[in-house]
Write a structure and sequence with these properties.
- The structure is a single chain.
- By secondary structure, the protein is mostly beta strands.
- The strands form two sheets. Strands 7-4-9-3-2-1-10 form a seven-stranded antiparallel beta sheet.
- The chain is globular and about 50 Å long.
- The chain has three helices and ten strands.
- The mean pLDDT is 92.
- The protein has a domain of 96 residues: Jelly Rolls, CATH 2.60.120.
- The termini are far apart.
Length: 151
C-alpha cells in the first residue's frame, strides 16, 4: 500500500538545467536545478559557475539563508568583512542579512552547489537574466567526470 500523499520524486540531469547570467557582463552563470517557478518548491537550488577571476557583487538576503558547497575549484568568501578561503568539499553558510561575496581565486572555474531557503526572489532574479548554455567542461564537472582538456 502506498501513501496517497507521496509525491513522485523529481529528477533532472545537467542537460536539463536552465542556465543564465544575471547580466550580460556577469562573470558567473547559474544553472537552475530546482526552483519555485518551475518546480513548485520553496527554495532555489542551482549550480553556480564562476569564471576565472569571477566574483558575485556584494549582496544580502533579508530572510533567506544561503548555502554553498564547493564542487570544484577554489575561492574566497567574504561575509560582513570576514574573509575565508574555500575549496572542493567545503561548505559555507551565509545567514540572513550577511553582506557577502564569493570570488574565484583559482586557475580554473569554481563550481558551487548553491541553495537558498526560502527563495526570496532568487529564482526570479536568475530567470530575468541572460540565457546561456552549459559547455562541455560544465557538463563533465556536473556529471562527476574528469574535465576535458581545453586548448
Amino acid at each position: 500500500m502506498t501513501d496517497s500523499r507521496c509525491m513522485i520524486p523529481l529528477a533532472k540531469s545537467p542537460q536539463e538545467y536552465q542556465a543564465y547570467r544575471i547580466s550580460p557582463d556577469s562573470s558567473n552563470k547559474l544553472a537552475l536545478a530546482f526552483d519555485p517557478l518551475k518546480d513548485k518548491v520553496s527554495f532555489t537550488c542551482c549550480i553556480e559557475i564562476f569564471d576565472v577571476g569571477g566574483k558575485t557583487p556584494p549582496n544580502r538576503h533579508m530572510y533567506a539563508t544561503e548555502m554553498f558547497f564547493v564542487l570544484k575549484g577554489e575561492g574566497q568568501a567574504t561575509c560582513d568583512g570576514k574573509t575565508i578561503q574555500i575549496q572542493e568539499g567545503d561548505s559555507l553558510l551565509v545567514p540572513p542579512t550577511g553582506i557577502h561575496t564569493i570570488e574565484n581565486i583559482g586557475k580554473s572555474r569554481l563550481y558551487t552547489l548553491t541553495i537558498m531557503v526560502p527563495n526570496e526572489e532568487f529564482a526570479e532574479l536568475i530567470r530575468s537574466g541572460v540565457p546561456t548554455e552549459l559547455d562541455e567542461e560544465d557538463l563533465a564537472v556536473l556529471r562527476g567526470k574528469a574535465s576535458p582538456v581545453l586548448s
